[in-house]
Fold this sequence. Notes:
By secondary structure, the chain is α/β, with parallel strands linked by helices. It contains twelve helices and ten strands.
Amino acid sequence: MDEKVSIVIPVYNGRATIRRCIESIMAQTYANKEIIVVDDGSEDNFTDEIKGYLGDILVIRQENRGAAIARNTGFEAATGKYIMYIDSDDYVSDNYVERLLDTLKENHAQFCLSAVVYCDGERKTEWKRQLPKRIKGKQAIISCFLRKKIGVSVWGAIYLKSFLMENKIRFTPGRKSEDTEYKFKCCLYAKRVAFCNEAFYMVVNTTNSICNSYSEKFLDLFLVMEEIEKCLVETGCMGKLLRQWRYFYLSNVLWLLEYGTRFYKESKGAFIYKVKRKMKMSFWKYPFNYTKGWKEKAKILMLRVHPYFYCCAYYFRTVKKMAAGNNE
């Protein structure tokens, strides 16, 4: 008999999109699955949209406590051997579960990723990972994560539940960017990661998505990066992966600056000041601890003038080197 796959869907006010999401899961070619919907204190009675499916779905209701706790709640309730996370805005192709599970088993991996399609209105952009079908070894896996070859989101993947339990991998409650921390821990402990380079998962940009809203809580990303840095140092990986770490850190700061200055309710200057303070508190110790030579230290001091210009210059120079093949 096929082994059960548990699919966890955290929902907050998902009335507009939940039907499409559930219908895409119900249409899967893989039969042995359970669907766990965690209602994170919704106010829009979204279950009215999926009344016809409620007999086949476990719905868990809780107070509004955020996506991290909602996913943890779904995980604890799951009875399957494998775990998948799907956002209620998104939907999947009908062979999504079957193809990812087959690829995971073939490669004896702890988790398996698929390519995705980003949907913004009528425009659809397919993003495929330029990676082999399987990656082995801690350093190789972490390097792919830091270079963002392995995406930081938890959707678009299937995980072996026993692997998550053995390594106590859970989402940190109350923290934004919890996906990034979770995915890093998966990469840190995995012996093998598999890739199915077909686009089965559709990421839908809605008015409630991260691209159209911003909260100061997204500065929690600095806390996540501190945790990642600590793990890299403790495991002895920092020396070998220093360039990849710089790329990862600075690309995330650029992301914060781009979306923060676009959507932050206060002035852009106020937001940039907050970023500079966070960089001093977390990243400030990093360059001087791991950088050799006065030239490198002088470049770091550019952050005191304006973090955006420094990050742009260093980020794109790093990208150029990686494109030339200097990414080991």
